[in-house]
Flagellar hook-basal body complex protein (Lysinibacillus pakistanensis), 277 residues
Amino acid sequence: MFKGFYTVATGMIAQQRRTELLTNNLSNANTPGFKADQSTIRSFPDMLMSSVGNTNATAKQQMGSQYMSQVGALNTGIYMQETLPNYIQGQIYNTDFSTDMALIDGYLPQNEEGITGSIFFRLAHPDGGEAYTRNGNFTLDGQGNLVNAQGLYVLSDTGQRIQLPNDDFRLDETGAIYVNDQQVARVGVSFAANPNMLRKQDNGLVRTENGENLPTAYGANGVAFTLRQNYLERSNVDSGRTMTDLMTAYRAFEANQKVLQAYDRSMEKAVNEIGKV
């Protein structure tokens, strides 16, 4: 009986975590460059239950197949194994702001594990090192530095801050920034061969696990991409499907909850009625 409590509880916990993940995706459906998280739910190993036909046999004898008959498998519950972002590019839309930039994937090679790489804007992280983002919603601070919405400096391909006299500049498809027809910088873009190894942070940022900087995407073997000024990349969250998945997770949680209530009523009867006999 108690095994049923544990099995149902694991199902409720897994669906609760999945609901939280889907809710976060839905709340970021309008966040530029946001990448939806995906979950993987797996079951714990099943246990093969057997009955012993001769209870007078010794413990060693009872381990033999002649004294045992298979009853069937018993599932021990499920768990959320991992969450991984979906790095597929979102739609590109026009904003008419010169400081807005969008990365457009061209050809991104796959690694030996069949995982497609991804490209990101380079940002200076306040704790040191670099952070990365697909959100190109940039602006100029009081000193003319190109920064993101949280004030982190956008880095050039040489790892320097990009300082501009005003927002009257031109960005070409190769990432070069021109002021008065003179190139002053090149927007830094990094390439992650396995983006699943990156760790998400707040405000649409990702960082490497060990804090090391990603290599530049310019000139990387097999990497092709372009940049576009006055455009942003939408979130790749599919709102309709996310709502459907959210309702499915809620119904699964509710079904487990009803099973848990049924177990509780059975235990109550066992204590209050059978216990009196």
